[in-house]
């Protein structure tokens, strides 16, 4: 077997080790956030997927991260899931590190702080997750991740 050439090594060094996908969708009632978290807790660790989920007024906003092929495969299945419709991808990109490194999935609690953070990224708009600006979706989740307003099956983050 030949050793990789300089171009191959350079390409390998520039590929981010993780991938994130952020999407929004309208939920089909009833919304069972507990069931969603349990399913993620069961399935995501084996897949190497972590992330966060915000649900407000029948709209999902979800951040998924892990290996690109795994995240894309999971998202393809999720996009066909009857629990939601009008799926809209806000961002797909490589990232150098995980934002939710020890969470199989966590649910954002809608505290006053969480609402204030959303409004700071979407000034002058209502709390409408479906209208999240794609250019601010990643930074929005980063700001939310820094708060204590997350619920996981094993307690609050």
- Mean pLDDT across the residues is 88
Order of helices and strands: HEHEEHEEHHEE
Strand content: 25-35%
Query: Structural class per helix/strand content?
Result: alpha+beta
What's the CATH class, please? Alpha Beta
Annotated CATH topology: Alpha-Beta Plaits
Number of helices: 5
Q: Whole-number radius of gyration? A: 17 Å
CATH architecture designation: 2-Layer Sandwich
Which regions have little confidence, pLDDT < 50, spanning 5+ residues?
6-12
Order of adjacent strands in the largest pleated sheet: 4-1-3-2-5-6-7
List the main descriptive attributes of the protein structure presented here.
7-stranded mixed β-sheet, globular, Alpha-Beta Plaits, 157 residues, 29% strand, 7 strands, alpha+beta
What does this structure look like?
There is one protein chain. The protein is an alpha+beta fold. It has one domain (about 15-155): Alpha-Beta Plaits, CATH 3.30.70. Helix content is about 35%, strand content about 30%. It has a seven-stranded mixed beta sheet, sandwiched between helices. It is globular, with a radius of gyration of 17 Å. The model is unreliable at about 5-10 (pLDDT under 50).
Indicate the topology.
Elements: H1 6-14, E1 18-27, H2 33-47, E2 50-56, E3 59-66, H3 68-79, E4 84-95, E5 106-108, H4 112-121, H5 137-145, E6 150-152, E7 155-156
Short note summarizing the structure:
The chain is an alpha+beta fold and 157 residues long. It is 35% helix and 29% strand. It has a single domain (16-156), classed as Alpha-Beta Plaits (2-Layer Sandwich).
């Amino acid at each position: 077997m030949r050793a990789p050439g300089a171009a191959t090594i350079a390409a390998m060094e520039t590929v981010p080790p993780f991938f994130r996908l952020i999407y929004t969708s309208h939920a089909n009632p009833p919304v069972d956030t507990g069931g969603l978290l349990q399913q993620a807790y069961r399935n995501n660790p084996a897949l190497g997927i972590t992330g966060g989920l915000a649900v407000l007024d029948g709209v999902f906003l979800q951040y998924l991260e892990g290996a690109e092929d795994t995240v894309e495969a999971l998202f393809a299945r999720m996009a066909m899931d009857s629990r939601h419709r009008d799926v809209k991808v806000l961002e797909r990109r490589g990232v150098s590190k995980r934002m939710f490194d020890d969470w199989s999935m966590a649910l954002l609690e809608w505290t006053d702080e969480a609402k204030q953070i959303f409004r700071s990224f979407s000034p002058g708009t209502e709390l409408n997750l479906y209208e999240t600006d794609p250019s601010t979706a990643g930074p929005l989740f980063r700001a939310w991740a820094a708060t204590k307003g997350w619920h996981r099956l094993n307690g609050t983050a």
